[in-house]
Specification:
By secondary structure, this protein is α/β, with parallel strands linked by helices. The chain is built from five helices and 15 strands. Helix 4 (201-213) crosses helix 5 (232-248).
Length: 342
């Protein structure tokens, strides 16, 4: 993942099914007490966080607010017609209070026993005030006492605990004026799929360019198989993305948005000094590089450098349009250019 260009990790510590990928004191429904109870790394979340942290990643803990295994959320004696709590909280406030405490206890474990955590990524937006209040304000406040500077992501719940927005399986149509992150799968499902439809490395690169130009982060979902392995077809794609970022990453990392951010197949980002722009030509799937690339606006001043080889390329400007002459011998991939603007 480091070589592939990722900068932060969001690891699923518990999804809606309630199965914990960490060693919780409050349930036996966990990997450390079942399938991997005798494994060397039985407390999987701890070791995953530790390994990624050692490589300089920001660490995020995904945690589901609903828990379909917990009897305080889904009473086993009652039907479960929807994904919501399956009893009337007003009639059984004591049971709901137990669920509030159960949730608070598990999040406190993650914030206390797993080293530095940068992001608490909370899913299950239907668990919210007023109908299903888990006292999240108190939970997050307590978490920040142990994890100063913690970013909270109470997804789809506007307010103090949704520090950035999380559009799922889509990219916003335009730039947004607040922090956001698109979560999109590499295959056709969130979890492991026995018959996956893989998206290509070029799709990942082009999607990353669009998201970055619009001011967001790209949360690319990769589902390991039941042995915890990242499969070879995934590795190949991520290595190709990493290779592209190793030469073109300056057009992505630590950049800023710029007002004129899109023209045809070209996406624009800006250096944080505000004086240097990058143009990323998103080569469409299945196509070869053309002889010329065109875009409107963002007219270069002086040299135009192709990041793939670090060399200057020829261009012309006429009537607000830029035409770039591509040299022979280039790798057939999306291209990034660096230039100053007039």
């Amino acid at each position: 993942m480091k070589e592939s260009g990722f900068k932060y990790l969001i690891f699923t510590t518990k999804h809606h099914d309630g199965f914990c990928m960490f060693d919780s004191k409050y349930t036996d429904f966990s990997v450390s007490k079942h399938g991997y109870k005798n494994g060397k790394y039985r407390n999987i979340a701890y070791h995953v966080f530790d390994a990624f942290r050692q490589k300089g990643f920001m660490i995020g803990a995904y945690f589901s607010k609903p828990d379909w295994h917990c009897p305080y959320y889904w009473d086993p004696a009652l039907a479960t017609p929807t994904r919501n709590v399956n009893y009337d909280i007003q009639k059984y406030p004591e049971t709901w209070a137990k669920y509030q405490q159960y949730t608070a206890n598990q999040i406190d474990e993650l914030m206390s026993d797993y080293g530095r955590i940068d992001i608490l990524w909370l899913d299950g937006g239907w668990v919210r005030k007023p109908a299903q209040d888990i006292k999240l304000d108190e939970i997050v406040d307590k978490a920040r006492l142990k994890q100063p500077g913690l970013i909270a992501v109470d997804r789809t719940v506007p307010g103090r605990n949704e520090n950035y927005q999380t559009p799922e399986l889509r990219i916003p149509k335009t730039q947004l004026d607040h922090p956001w992150e698109s979560g999109i799968t590499l295959t056709n499902s969130w979890g492991w799929n026995p018959k996956p439809k893989y998206k290509s490395a070029r799709w990942v690169i082009n999607t990353l360019a669009e998201i970055t130009a619009k001011g967001g982060c790209f949360l690319l979902n990769v589902g390991p198989n039941r042995e915890g392995e990242i499969e070879e077809e995934v590795v190949k794609r991520l290595q190709e993305v990493g290779s592209w970022l190793s030469t073109n990453g300056s057009a992505i990392y630590a950049t800023r948005i710029t007002p004129n951010y899109h023209s045809g197949n070209v996406w624009f980002t800006a250096n944080k000094d505000g004086k240097t722009l990058y143009a990323i030509y998103a080569l469409p799937e299945g196509e070869e590089l053309p002889e010329t690339i065109e875009w409107e606006g963002n007219l270069p001043k002086g040299k135009l450098t192709l990041l793939q080889n670090g060399k200057r390329v020829k261009y012309s400007c006429k009537d607000g349009k830029v035409t770039v002459q591509l040299p022979d011998g280039l790798l057939n991939e999306s291209l990034a250019f660096r230039f100053k603007v007039k």
